[in-house]
Amino acid sequence: MSPAGIAVAATAPFGADVLERLAASREVVCLLTRPDAPTGRGRRLAAPPAKVTAERLGIPVLQPERLEPSLDLGAPIVVVCAYGVLVPAALLAERSWLNVHPSLLPRWRGAAPVERAILAGDTETGVTIHETVEALDAGPTVAQESFPIAPDDDAGAVYRRAADVAARLLDRVLSDPEPVFVAQPDDGVTYAEKIGPADRVLDLARPAEELVRRVRALSPHIGARAVLHDRPVIVWRARVGDDGAFEPLEVQPEGGRRMPVEAWLRGLR
Description:
There is one protein chain. The chain folds into two domains: 186 residues, Rossmann fold, CATH 3.40.50.170; 72 residues, Methionyl-tRNA Fmet Formyltransferase, Chain A, domain 2. Helix 1 runs parallel beside helix 2, helix 1 runs parallel beside helix 5 and helix 4 packs antiparallel against helix 6. Strand 12 and strand 13 form a beta hairpin. The chain is built from seven helices and 15 strands. The chain has a seven-stranded mixed sheet. The chain is α/β, with parallel strands linked by helices. 26% of the residues lie in helices and 28% in strands.
């Protein structure tokens, strides 16, 4: 491929991390990202994480409300990473779009591959680079690399490792004058549905190992919810205790800050 410059389509923190790593070794001519959106209790407009990174690096930013044909991205190749928007067929036909997906496709196609892998108890995941097509994460692959999920890894740790792997794979693919794309197998397809409110609830009647996986899958970016000592909290870290019971380690009460569970318990006395 060896393009003089590339464009990047990214929105979420994982996309921002990959953008930063790409920009360290490649000319990124522009970032395509979603419009600023209301966030937090005050519903103030906030820039997507990838935009914050691009502006710090001096990369021009495009934030169209709709993706229209002939969008001027200034490059023949677009690297897509946690963009969160389906690219219309008309735009896909105009240039090469390479998608970065943090899973071993065809396992965990969709919005939350890292979270679903941890929830499922997977001990391995990875990164796949594939051609972006209309069907969700179904395009032919050009590079893939696996790595283990350690027992204590939360989603943040897995995403960081995936960003490093993605940058390395992309450098290899973009430097290859004739990369080879291979169709994904039909067997082994699973879907990583977006995390919803029900996914955040810790049912303390469930096995401790399952509860700890849920906490790990939702930390440090979403948070698992529980009622402890009759009070609602977000649990950010937890472990299986010596007695086999679920043991919260770091919690956040409503309207409060994150703290060790011991400090929170002292405040209840």
